[in-house]
Structure formats: structure tokens, C-alpha cells
């Protein structure tokens, strides 16, 4: 690239200084009409200090002059003068040059030259279209005109040129100003131009308008912020993973439930956070595959949340795969909530549906279901079960004299006494106001009679005190066996009739008719 260099010779005696211009391809070899200058130098007060050799082509004699901070250099010095070489300026490529044609044809990039003082030296058509200034308007203007007022006050133009000069190039994205005052988002690169020999001749600046991309990016960022805000605000825990099952996001609820911060959860395998209810931790690939099939986990597919302190929590939720726009699998998202309270409530509701509110024993509806299962087992295995029917003697008198409070307390306490005489797997139910029934699976005549008499005896020995009065009841007990060929109605009918017989015989006794 050619440059113009101005040589200014200082005065000697009464002679006036003169300015000469030379055109050069190489600062180290400058040709003039009558002189050849060879050498290098350093910038000094806006000029260059160089060691030069001047040969007069007309006089045929040589003079060696130097200016090196006032110190002589080796060699014969006939006389010396002060020569100052003004900074070289970048020149645009000559019209028709291939590089000039390429720069002019570029449409997406503004490309122009800047001299060392920061003035614009060239201007391609794309720069005119992007920034609104014609070449005639802008060439010779300071670079500052392309910056916003705030950027000028902050010294951004000078900072950017200085950074490019020191580092060789400077790149940034920021707002720039058009001629009409409108702003656009630009990617800019400023490149320092250094000629062979080390002389800095200016800068080349390349700008691309990225306003559309900036708006899309800002819109996407705002949408992501809204989404993140929504995820943070909802009451359920939300965790997302990458394609390898590593956690990449966890909202505030997930952090709260697990007792871990986002930093603690980030990049942790999802299998370290969620485990199956049986306590075994499957390989990540196994769990991840199940989760990404849209798995719903609940009491029927139990999943536990492993907390920071090592404890676990039952959770309900759902997992679903996440796919990229091209259909590639990109991970999964898991939404879950603490199921402790809900499951306790469900169990309480289920218990209420199957148990008597007052005594806590199995109610009539649940008893009928269990009796049907016992009948079915007797059909399938030919193993007999015992069915015991209990009717309290004198309970009406307790209610009439002591009131319902006394009667209710008596029923509650008798229920606990009856339960002491049976196995945990046996079924004890309250099937009427003062009537109870007991199913003992896999039971013989002898065992059934022994249990029935123990219940009768415990009832006889029991009494309660209410308002200074003592209340006591007896128990009429009927016993039968459930055998193959029975129906539930038949078995219950026999036990009921046996109980009626015991009561008809005076009560407080066990009646067990033998079956033929």
C-alpha cells in the first residue's frame, strides 16, 4: 500500500525550512527526485526520528545526517540537520485495483480507513448505506461522529483506536449512530495498519449491522426470563436435564424440596436426585429411559426424592422428553411435588371409606369384601376359615341410662379388647350398632371356639364408670366355619343364627353348631 510522507527540514542559519513530499512503497527505501533515504525510526512528538543517508544525484557527493536523540552515530558526518518525517497516512487502493473493487462490492460490511489522528480516510458504498453518510460528507471527519453522545463523553472512540494500536485489533458489539440519529447494533473490528519497517499508517474499520439479530436475541432473552420467572413462581418443582441426564436447571421449589442450591444440583445426574421407591438406585441410563417415555410417578410407581441430608421424600409427578427443532433428543423435564401430605390424606380417606369412625375397626362394606375373598380362598384351597358373630347383651340399657357418650366409650374400649385376642392379619369389623364380626383365615373348630370364648370372657369382665355409675355388658357369640361350596351370604347367615341361638339361651355364651 503506497503512502505519502512529508519531510520537513529545519532551519540552519538564516535559511527557512522547506517541506518536501515523497511517495514510497517502503518506509525503509524512500525515493525522491534527488535523494534516497534509507533507515528506520521511532515516533517522537508526532514525527519520526530516523537516520538517513542523502545522496545528491546532481552534485555527486554524499552527506550523512542523523538525528538520534542528539547522539552521534558511527561514520563520517559532514554536517547534520534536523529532519522530521510526519506520520504516514493510509491511502485508499487506486481505482480499478482488485482490492478496491472487492471492498466496493461488499454489501453487508461497512469498510473504511482511518488515519493515525482518527479521521476517516475512505468510505465504501456499504458504509454509506449502513450509516447514511456519503463519502463526500464523511471523509476527513473524525471517527467520533459515528459514536453516540454517551460513547463520545466516555472517550470510547479514542479508547478503541488506542486498543487496536496496542493489540493489533479491537473487536466489540455496541450501539452506533446513523446520520439521522437512529441507533443500530453493530459488530465492529478495528485493525491497526503497520507498514513494512514498523511505521503505523492508520486503521481499517469493519462494521456489520446486527440490529435484527440483537432484537431477536433480546426478545428470546425476555421470553426466557418470563419463562424462568414463571417456573420460579409455580408451586411444583421443575428440573430439566441435558441429553446425558445431567441436571441443567432447577427452579426454586426443586431447590427447596431437595435442600440443595442450583450450584449443588447443576451437572448432577438425575438418578442421584430421584430414586425408585424400593430404595435401589438404577443405572442412569435405565432411569433416564423410563423418565423420557413420559413416565408418571405416583403411589403406583413410587419415586423418592433424595434430599441433601440423605433423607428421602415421596414425590408425585411426571417426566417428559425435550426435543430440539430438528427432532433430536435434547434431554427431559421433570415436574414433581411433595407427596407426603397428599398420600397421608389419601390413606386417611381410604381408611375412612373402609373403617368405622368410632371404633377404627373395619366397616360393614369392607367386611363384605373380605368375607367374599375368604369364601373364594376356601373354594380354591379347600382350607376352612372361621367366621365369628358377636352381639352385645344389655347394650341398650347402657345407652338408655348412661347416654350415647357412655355407649360410645364402651364400644371403643371393647373394640380394643377384642383386637388383643386376634392376629394382625385377621379381620375384626363393626357391622352394626352393637354387633361385631371376626374372620379368621385358616382356622379349625377348636381355635375358633377358643378365640370366641376369650372374647366372651373379656367382655364379661369389662366394665366402665360414667358419672359415678358402672356399666357392664355381656356377649352372645355365634361361630361357624367357611368351607368349600359356601357363599358369603350362607356363611354369614349361619354365624348370625348361631349368635341368635346363644342370645336365646340366655346370652353371654358361645354357640357353635356342628356342620354335617
UniProtKB/TrEMBL annotation:
One of its GO terms (molecular function) is diguanylate cyclase activity. Residues 169-222, 299-351 form the PAC domain. PROSITE patterns: GGDEF, PAC, PAS. Pfam families: GGDEF (PF00990), PAS (PF00989), PAS_9 (PF13426). Keywords: Nucleotidyltransferase, Transferase. SUPFAM superfamilies: Nucleotide cyclase, PYP-like sensor domain (PAS domain). Residues 383-515 form the GGDEF domain. InterPro entries: Biofilm_reg_signaling (IPR052155), GGDEF_dom (IPR000160), Nucleotide_cyclase (IPR029787), PAS (IPR000014), PAS-assoc_C (IPR000700), PAS-like_dom_sf (IPR035965), PAS_fold (IPR013767), Rev_trsase/Diguanyl_cyclase (IPR043128). Its EC number is 2.7.7.65. It is an enzyme of class 2 (transferase). Residues 111-149, 223-265 form the PAS domain. This is Diguanylate cyclase domain-containing protein.
Amino acid at each position: 500500500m503506497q503512502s505519502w510522507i512529508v519531510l520537513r527540514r529545519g532551519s540552519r542559519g538564516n535559511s527557512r525550512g522547506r517541506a518536501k513530499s515523497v511517495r514510497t512503497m517502503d518506509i525503509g527505501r524512500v525515493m525522491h527526485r534527488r535523494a534516497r533515504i534509507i533507515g528506520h525510526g521511532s515516533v517522537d512528538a508526532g514525527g519520526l526520528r530516523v537516520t538517513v543517508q542523502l545522496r545528491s544525484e546532481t552534485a555527486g557527493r554524499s552527506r550523512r545526517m542523523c538525528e538520534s536523540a542528539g547522539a552521534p552515530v558511527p561514520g563520517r558526518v559532514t554536517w547534520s540537520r534536523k529532519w522530521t518525517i510526519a506520520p504516514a497516512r493510509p491511502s485508499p487502493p487506486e481505482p480499478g485495483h482488485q482490492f478496491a473493487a472487492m471492498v466496493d462490492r461488499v454489501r453487508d460490511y461497512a469498510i473504511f480507513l482511518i488515519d493515525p489522528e482518527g479521521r476517516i480516510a475512505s468510505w465504501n458504498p456499504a458504509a454509506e448505506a449502513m450509516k447514511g453518510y456519503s463519502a463526500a460528507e464523511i471523509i476527513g471527519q473524525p471517527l467520533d461522529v459515528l459514536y453516540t453522545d454517551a460513547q463520545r463523553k466516555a472517550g470510547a472512540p479514542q479508547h478503541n483506536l488506542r486498543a487496536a494500536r496496542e493489540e493489533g485489533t479491537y473487536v466489540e458489539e455496541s450501539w452506533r449512530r446513523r446520520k439521522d440519529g437512529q441507533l443500530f447494533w453493530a459488530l465492529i473490528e478495528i485493525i491497526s495498519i503497520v507498514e513494512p519497517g514498523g511505521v503505523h499508517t492508520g486503521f481499517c474499520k469493519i462494521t456489520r449491522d446486527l440490529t435484527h439479530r440483537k432484537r431477536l436475541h433480546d426478545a428470546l432473552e425476555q421470553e426466557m426470563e418470563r419463562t424462568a420467572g414463571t417456573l420460579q413462581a409455580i408451586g411444583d418443582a421443575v428440573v430439566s436435564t441435558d441429553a446425558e441426564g445431567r441436571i441443567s436447571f432447577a427452579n426454586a421449589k426443586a431447590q427447596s424440596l431437595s435442600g440443595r442450591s442450583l450450584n449443588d444440583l447443576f451437572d448432577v445426574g438425575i438418578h442421584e436426585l430421584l430414586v425408585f421407591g424400593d430404595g435401589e438406585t438404577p443405572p442412569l441410563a435405565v432411569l433416564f429411559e423410563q423418565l423420557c417415555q413420559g413416565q408418571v410417578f405416583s403411589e403406583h410407581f413410587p419415586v423418592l426424592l433424595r434430599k441433601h441430608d440423605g433423607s428421602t421424600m415421596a414425590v408425585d409427578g411426571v417426566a417428559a422428553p425435550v426435543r430440539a427443532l430438528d427432532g433430536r433428543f435434547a434431554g427431559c423435564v421433570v415436574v414433581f411435588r411433595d407427596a407426603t401430605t397428599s398420600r397421608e390424606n389419601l390413606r386417611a380417606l381410604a381408611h375412612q371409606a373402609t373403617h368405622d369412625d368410632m371404633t377404627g375397626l373395619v366397616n360393614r362394606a369392607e367386611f363384605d369384601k373380605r368375607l367374599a375373598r375368604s369364601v373364594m380362598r376356601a373354594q380354591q384351597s379347600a382350607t376352612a376359615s372361621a367366621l365369628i358373630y358377636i352381639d352385645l347383651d344389655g347394650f341398650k340399657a347402657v345407652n338408655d341410662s348412661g347416654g350415647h357418650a357412655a355407649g360410645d366409650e364402651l364400644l371403643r374400649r371393647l373394640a380394643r379388647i377384642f383386637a388383643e385376642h386376634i392376629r394382625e392379619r385377621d379381620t375384626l369389623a363393626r357391622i352394626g350398632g352393637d354387633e361385631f364380626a371376626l374372620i379368621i383365615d385358616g382356622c379349625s373348630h377348636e381355635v375358633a371356639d377358643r378365640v370366641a370364648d376369650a372374647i366372651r370372657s373379656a367382655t364379661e369382665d369389662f366394665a366402665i364408670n360414667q358419672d359415678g355409675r358402672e356399666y357392664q355388658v355381656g356377649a352372645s357369640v355365634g361361630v361357624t366355619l367357611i368351607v368349600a361350596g359356601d357363599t358369603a351370604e350362607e356363611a354369614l347367615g349361619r354365624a348370625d343364627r348361631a349368635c341368635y341361638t346363644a342370645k336365646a339361651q340366655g346370652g353371654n355364651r358361645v354357640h357353635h353348631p356342628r356342620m354335617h
